[in-house]
Input
Amino acid sequence: MRNITGNPVDGDDFFGREEDLQQLRIAVEDGNHILLLGPRRVGKSSLIAELSRTLKVEGWTAIKVDVQDTADEAAFLQQIQEAVKASGIEMPAMATVAELVRGFRKFFRGSKVSVAGTGLELKDGDVDWEEVASQLKSLIKSLPDSGRRVLITIDELPIFLNKLLRSENGSERVRRILDWLRSVRQACGTRLPWILCGSIGLDSFVVQHGLEGSINELLPQPLGALEPAQALELLKRLGLKRQDQHQCKLSDEVAGYMVQRVGWPIPYYLQLLFHALKSLRNQDRSKDYPAAIDVQKAYETLLSPQFQTHLGHWDSRLGDLLDGHQVSVARELLNHLCEHPNGRSRDQLRDVLAREFPQADPGKLDRELRELLEFLERDGYLGREGAIYAFRSFLLRDFWKRKFGE
Output
């Protein structure tokens, strides 16, 4: 298998998620609509890629819609329509719906939205969202009539919704998108399953904005870190990829030390550390390379400025779901916890916030702490053991300490 970091993988490069894959496949084949849950970089996109590959072998059509770069409702509908068209399923209504969607987007571009109900009043004229969305809904609903089993995946939906939320009438527009998607899923029933996922948790987004009812029919499937034995096997397979001078064969001891250093064994972190280990220059390698001392050098490399793009998004993404004050409080919690490898209790964290925000109402501060700890745990920053909260990833903790610690 190849060491591919950051991009979805399938086939021979997919590893260690056989049980998760089987559970997801059974749920999809039964006609469930799925909310794939898990912190960013845990491997959700790779799981979907492998599921799609295996289903296609058996005659399914897998339609994936990535909406992270989508700017507005019109572009959102067009993304879905174009993905359906690209699937190759021939449908008489396709040309009509495509023309409607293109016309809607043409009116939408450069227009100022002043939403009233389900209609959009645009400076170029009146365009009815309901008409366009209803036609696309009917098209999607009829996809199984082609005689194929069809799966639709919407990836990075929370990123799009968050951008929409910050625009004019954002709350109404976000609710309308979520309500429409729910109505489409209900119209499809068990005949056409959907999977929703993203690098930001949709569960976090809807909880944050009181929209839980828009996804409460989705079947949640969580995805976590690899088991230690799986993580060990992943690293050893990566080390055996090449059969030449570039091979990096790992002993059980060295592979185990790599898993230990990462702390939270998700494939992305393990592959980053393996890449850094293989990239050590010859003069920096020990005479027993690859040895534990080389792993430590590689680990230090990951904490250097040139690797900030691989870990810095954990900082920038705080602002994707939290407002300015919440970001400040969340950073205060993370800045404190990065100095305490063994973690801190909720009471200790409350004391930290009380000192930092002495004028805050105690009841409000306690609620805010509870909500932020839930968010940070759900989105992969923190883990909890009993009453103690700590960074899930040793690598992220050490990165955070170097960048923001005292």
Remarks:
- Residues 112-126 have pLDDT under 50 and may be disordered.
